[in-house]
TrEMBL record:
Gene3D superfamilies: CDGSH iron-sulfur domain, mitoNEET-type
Name of the protein described by the UniProt record: Iron-binding zinc finger CDGSH type domain-containing protein
Keywords per UniProt: 2Fe-2S, Iron, Iron-sulfur, Metal-binding
Transmembrane segments annotated in the record for this chain: none
Organism whose genome encodes this protein: Neobacillus rhizosphaerae
Entry keyword annotation includes Iron: yes
Length: 68
């Protein structure tokens, strides 16, 4: 089984690739594709999925801290 990959996109969503099960707060399963994006900005009209509403309205460029 390959690893699931979660990519934090600059100024955008979390891109999920791989065989994962996405659940809501009550344990209900969302229907997903092998690759999908989750909203990180809170502006999507299709939460928890990203619908592109963040474009031009959200800034975040997260990087892994460099080891000292």
């Amino acid at each position: 089984m390959s690893k699931v990959q979660i990519k934090v996109n600059d100024n955008g969503s979390l891109r999920i690739t791989g065989d994962v099960e996405l659940l809501d707060g009550e344990g209900n399963v969302y229907t997903t594709k092998p690759s999908f994006s989750l909203c990180r900005c809170g502006q999507s009209n299709n939460k928890p999925f990203c619908d592109g509403s963040h474009k031009g309205n959200f800034e975040s460029q997260v990087r892994v801290p460099k080891a000292e």
